[in-house]
Design goal:
Blueprint: E1 2-14, H1 19-29, E2 34-41, E3 45-52, H2 58-64, E4 68-80, H3 85-95, E5 100-107, E6 113-120, H4 123-136
Antiparallel strand pairs: 1-3, 1-4, 2-3, 4-6, 5-6
């Protein structure tokens, strides 16, 4: 298991054709890799959560383009792509009294690992807990 703290931006945008394309083109132009993306949409507006590496200057990219956003830190967790791995993580966080507020992720067919992105109420405590869990299981961590 590899665990690291990364930036997530919650971007408020209109619910109309081309809005997502306009958003992601900003990062493509600046060669910023998107690690994860999820959205919630209502009739008039949408909220896009976009996870990026910490070295990007996404906040200024978004504000210069006129997007309103909120920056937070989340955990990026790379796991063996096997049944029960998310259960191990969610159980460990629950036992540590850490509430998960958002989770998203995916794996690719044939890949040996998958990535999940988790927002929690106490990111630093969750990072410490999961790093200890990874060390106890003999797997490497990164932050």
């Amino acid at each position: 298991m590899k665990v690291e703290k990364i930036k997530q931006f919650s971007v408020f945008m209109p619910n109309k054709p081309g809005a997502l394309s306009r958003l992601v083109s900003l990062f493509a132009e600046k060669r910023v890799n998107i690690l994860g993306i999820a959205s919630e949409v209502s009739a008039e507006s949408g909220l896009v959560r976009i996870a990026l590496a910490n070295d990007s200057d996404a906040s200024s990219i978004l504000s210069r383009a006129g997007f309103s956003s909120v920056e937070t830190h989340i955990l990026s967790i790379e796991l063996d792509d096997q049944p029960g791995q998310l259960l191990r993580v969610s159980d460990a966080l629950a036992e540590g009294k850490i509430n998960i507020t958002t989770v998203y992720g995916t794996s690719s067919p044939g890949a040996s690992t998958s990535r999940i992105l988790i927002a929690v109420q106490n990111t630093d405590k969750a990072l410490e807990l999961l790093e200890a869990m990874a060390l106890a299981s003999g797997k490497k961590t990164g932050s």
